[in-house]
Design goal:
The chain has 407 residues and is of the alpha+beta class. The protein contains eleven helices and 15 strands.
Length: 407
């Protein structure tokens, strides 16, 4: 399988205090220019929280991390790409333990303080010797500079064309805190996460229960609102480490709300990047569904539109085919009054009062071609809740990349 890489988007965000990262090529991928083992290390014990796939067929690293989070005393995340360690039975779980133990031994930390992430081909046993050699090599290059950050992010990638990074700072109770995020994902991206991995780091001090609660809540309206192909994977994981290196008491009240806002912004940026880098994608679909009785109702409608191959191919062809969008909402399983539905595409009104509206089709088509992002706005008219959902168009390159995945 051939993947054409694009440059990482600038600027590169900074790591929070007390974290170091790096990545290297250890031989899991055939291309020696593509990193496949990474480490994320905290210089002090950190709180950890995790959110995982809802697929009942889940990978060994998911079982391993799920059993350990939320918790305290974490020092590292060991990551590999090229092998998912999924559908590998008892040996797979033992290999996940071995991977954590190798990182712990090399870093001189307790094995119970290491989490693992894996992504890649399902159903193949881990090449443990290559992974252990990679961990040994990458542990010697841990750093905080931009090169270390990029190589660590690249070590998570499979069919991604570029690393996905986000970061910000916020001030709470007179202290400045930093938040950093990196993620991978380009296909097998379905609602409720999919073949995506995310790592969020902060130097704020946060109680484990608050970290778990906020990560879960934020994931619901960010990573759980992105779909490339609707295929929920075996390995989806988002991990949050908070090491308190910036000092101060555990965040609470208004300070914790500021952290939640920074976390939400970082995760939404990463979710959009995943949709933008959908395999073969030429457009990002930003679907705004408003006027629903619940957020879950809005998500259900948005997800159905996002996963429609007819909607996705229409956007690929710059075709303002409003009928495909309206009918997708209609088979979403949500009962509504079609006469109340209002549809806009890139700001142009296409449908309302149960009927099409006269519009300049060429102008709308040109607006799709002119921008990487296509905005689909659907007003349902029977409530006050809304959702923002990201997806991508469907191109011939998507078929090629997934048909040739093992070659």
């Amino acid at each position: 399988m051939s993947v054409t890489e694009t440059p990482v988007r600038l600027p590169i965000p900074s790591l929070p205090q007390g974290f170091r990262v790096a990545g290297c090529h250890a031989g899991l991928k055939r291309n020696p220019l593509r990193e496949d083992v990474s480490l994320v290390v905290s210089d002090r014990p950190a709180v950890a929280a995790g959110v995982y796939t809802t697929n009942v067929v889940f990978a060994a690293p998911v079982a391993f991390d799920r059993a350990r989070t939320p918790g305290v005393g974490f020092r590292a995340i060991a990551i590999n790409s090229g092998n998912a360690n999924a559908c590998t039975g008892a040996r797979g779980l033992a290999d996940a333990h071995s991977m954590a133990a190798a990182a712990a031994s090399r870093l001189g930390v307790d094995e119970s303080g290491v989490l693992v992430l894996s992504t890649g081909i399902i159903g193949e046993f881990m090449p443990l010797e290559k992974i252990k050699a990679g961990i040994d090599r990458v542990a010697g290059t841990l750093a905080t500079d931009t090169n270390a950050i990029v190589t660590a992010a690249r070590g998570m990638m499979t069919t991604d064309t570029r690393p996905k990074l986000s970061g910000s700072s916020f001030v709470a109770a007179g202290k400045t805190y930093t938040l950093f995020g990196m993620a991978k994902g380009a296909a097998m991206i379905g609602p409720r996460m999919a073949t995506m991995l995310g790592v969020i780091l902060t130097d704020a001090t946060i109680h484990a229960e608050d970290a778990q609660r906020l990560l879960g809540e934020v994931t619901e309206h960010t990573f759980n609102c992105v779909s490339v192909d609707g295929h929920t994977s075996t390995n989806d994981t988002v991990l949050l480490l908070a090491n308190g290196a910036a000092g101060g008491e555990p965040l609470s009240g208004a300070s914790l709300n500021l952290f939640e806002k920074a976390l939400s912004d970082a995760c939404e940026a990463l979710a959009r990047e995943i949709a933008d880098d959908g395999e073969g994608a030429t457009h990002v679909l930003r679907i705004e569904v408003t006027g629903c009785p619940t957020r879950d109702t809005a998500r259900q409608i948005a997800r159905t539109i996002a996963d429609s191959p007819l909607v996705k191919t229409a956007i690929c062809g710059a075709d303002p085919n409003w009928g495909r969008i309206v009918s997708a909402a209609g088979y979403s399983g949500v009962r509504f009054d079609p006469n109340a539905l209002v549809l806009r595409l890139n700001g142009t009104l296409l449908f309302c009062d149960g009927s099409p509206v006269s519009f300049n089709g060429q102008a709308v088509s040109d607006s799709i071609r002119a921008s990487r992002e296509t905005l689909i706005e659907v007003e349902m008219g029977f409530g006050t809740e809304s959702i923002r959902f990201y997806s991508s168009d469907l191109t011939a390159d998507y078929v090629r990349l997934n048909a040739d995945y093992h070659t």
